[in-house]
Write a structure and sequence with these properties.
Layout lengths: L3 H17 L10 H27 L9 H11 L5
Helix pairs in contact: 1-2
Pfam families: ATP_synt_H (PF05493)
Protein name: V-type proton ATPase subunit
Main location: membrane
Length: 82
């Protein structure tokens, strides 16, 4: 349940920006380009956020420490187990 609320809020925000943003653009020679830029900005920002957020939930590679280093740290910190 803790994952659903941030995903819904951020997705809703970028959906509003992508849907309502183009309607705010004034008429002019570059109206189509500006509308495209607003929609693409919303899509790219949402995609970047969702990829980073989901990657932090379940990282593919965790910290990897060699056994030799762990034993050395144990000796230096004084908690060796024989």
């Amino acid at each position: 349940m803790g994952i659903v609320i941030p995903m819904a809020v951020v997705t809703g925000f970028w959906a509003l920006v992508g849907i309502l943003g183009p309607f705010v653009v004034r008429r002019g020679p570059n109206q189509g380009i500006i509308r495209t830029m607003i929609v693409m900005t919303a899509v790219c920002c949402w995609a970047f956020w969702i990829l980073v957020y989901l990657h932090q939930l379940n990282p593919l590679i965790g910290p990897q420490i060699p056994v030799k280093t762990i034993r050395w740290l144990g000796e230096k910190w004084g908690n060796t187990n024989n």
